[in-house]
Design goal:
Elements (H helix, E strand, L loop, with lengths): L1 E6 L2 E8 L6 E3 L15 H4 L4 E6 L8 H14 L1
Parallel strand pairs: 3-4
Antiparallel strand pairs: 1-2, 2-4
């Protein structure tokens, strides 16, 4: 159920649950995790909230600039 959005530096992916017109909860995972970290919460939260979980890239020295800008771009689009 991943969705794709074009961002600065390439495609970004996120997962969305719940209805768009509801209050939104945005989950941000840590450095070595993925959007799957929050999957167990979707069944509990999605009936009342819109749940957005971007799959943020791992940031290292080589891709820091593009991925950081891409992540910001993704968050603004959501």
């Amino acid at each position: 159920m991943y969705k794709k959005v074009e961002c600065v530096g390439g495609p970004c992916f996120y997962v969305e649950y719940g209805e768009e017109n509801r209050d939104t909860i945005l989950f941000l995972h840590g450095y070595s995790d993925s959007a799957k970290t929050f999957e167990p919460l979707k069944d509990y939260l999605s009936p009342k909230y819109r749940v957005l979980i971007p799959d943020l890239p791992m940031i290292n020295e080589k891709v820091l600039a593009t991925t950081f800008r891409g992540c910001l771009h993704l968050l603004m689009k959501l």
